[in-house]
Design brief:
46% of the residues lie in helices and 15% in strands. The chain is α/β, with parallel strands linked by helices and 376 residues long. It has 2 domains: 242 residues, Type I PLP-dependent aspartate aminotransferase-like (Major domain) (Aspartate Aminotransferase, domain 2, 3-Layer(aba) Sandwich), CATH 3.40.640.10; 124 residues, Aspartate Aminotransferase, domain 1, CATH 3.90.1150. Strand 7, helix 7 and strand 8 form a beta-alpha-beta unit. Helix 11 runs antiparallel to helix 14, helix 12 crosses helix 13 and helix 13 runs antiparallel to helix 14.
């Protein structure tokens, strides 16, 4: 989080029904459209990103509806399980972890199963750092009765993904990723095609009733109590985004990713994802080493936190995020810390001259970024 965001989070509290906060809330709802790249209403929900995924399901679908869920990692599994919990008939399109989905398989399923109501996918499967071909998936779904629901929690605000232009029907984001905030807010928007389904959805809902939320928003308020601290900070983040230009934000994140991938390759470390997302890079841990122990070593020795793998990937990958106020020095220090921890786990795994060459390459790539987006 940038220092100025931390300052806003520390401001004295105000009531969420005051005229001042109501004005902030309305401005935030309007400015979110620029990040979603949509003319449709955007909504804020006080929940983690998973709450946004549940909201997408319960507002558009009904028990018994046929759903195709792309499962290529931990979060694909979670959304499929969530749909099953609401009584939907879920077909899982299993994708090898680390690889993107084959769009032809989606098209074939929709042709063979014309009653499919929704296709669920991650834009970036956070657990593997894979970027799925969302634009191509949208093109395949658009000509069918189904709607495309996109978990964009690690993509919205981090990479160019125009909702209206690409024909994405439901897009879900979260505050704790590219929006540079603590966990606690989810964001969601519906296309006209998806909004029509809200009129027939029979799933039980109360807190996540998006039609009731829209009525409240149209009257200038939120339906329930708002997270004042987070929304005031979001107001600042959106102002930063709009003044900087989203294209510059995307460029900065891509530059961090490119520097990480280049350095990893030079050090002989394999990038796990076949199609890496700009927002996060997963590095395969060298054979015979325990990624969990390496993570712990990095945290203890360098006071840097990187994430590991989940479930079948536990101990096998390290994940480095590229979203938020990450300086050049932050990334270079992290890359060096990862290399040194690997060498402490198994001396000589990465030669020192390769580490130095990798860091020099990464630094050159980072310094190519326009200064306006280089957080120092």
């Amino acid at each position: 989080m940038p220092p100025e965001v931390l300052e806003v989070l520390a401001l004295p509290m105000e009531h969420h029904r005051t005229p001042e906060f109501v004005a902030t809330y309305g401005r935030v709802l309007k400015n979110l459209k620029s990040v979603f790249q949509t003319e449709q209403p955007c909504f804020i929900q006080t929940s983690t990103g998973s709450g946004g995924l549940e909201s997408a399901l319960v507002n558009c679908l009904s028990p018994g509806d046929e759903v195709l869920s792309i499962v290529s990692g931990k979060f694909g599994e979670r959304w499929a399980e969530m749909a099953e919990a609401f009584g939907m008939r879920v077909t899982r399109l299993e994708v090898e972890w680390g690889k993107p989905v084959d769009v032809r398989k989606i098209s074939d399923h929709l042709s063979s199963n014309p009653k499919t109501k929704a296709v669920l996918t991650q834009a970036c499967e956070t657990s593997t750092a894979v970027l799925h071909p969302v634009r191509e998936i949208a093109a395949a779904v658009k000509t069918t009765p189904a709607v495309l629901m996109v978990d964009a929690i690690t993509a919205l605000g981090a990479l160019n993904m125009p909702m209206d232009e690409w024909g994405l029907d439901v897009v879900v984001g979260g505050s704790q990723k590219a929006f540079m905030l603590p966990t606690g807010l989810s964001f969601i928007s519906f296309s006209k095609k998806a909004w029509a389904l809200t009129e027939t959805s029979k799933c039980p809902k109360f807190y996540f009733d998006i039609r009731a939320e829209k009525s409240a928003n149209d009257a200038g308020e939120s339906l329930f109590s708002s997270s004042v601290t987070l929304i005031r900070a979001l107001d600042l983040v959106l102002d930063i985004f709009l003044k900087t230009g989203m294209h510059r934000v995307y460029e900065r994140i891509q530059t961090l990713a490119t520097a990480t991938i280049t350095a990893s390759n030079t050090m002989g470390l394999k990038v796990f994802a076949q199609t890496p997302s700009p927002s996060v890079t997963a590095i395969a841990v060298p054979d015979g080493l325990d990624g969990q122990k390496i993570r712990g070593d990095i945290e203890k020795t360098a006071q840097i936190v990187v994430m590991g793998g989940q479930d079948r990937l536990k101990g096998k990958i390290l994940r480095i995020g590229h979203m938020g106020a990450i300086s050049d020095e932050n990334l270079l220090t992290t890359l060096d810390a990862v290399a040194q921890a690997i060498n402490r786990a198994k001396p000589g795994t990465i030669a020192q001259d390769k580490i130095e060459a990798a860091l020099a390459q990464a630094k050159t790539i980072l310094q190519s970024q326009p200064p306006v987006m280089r957080t120092q």
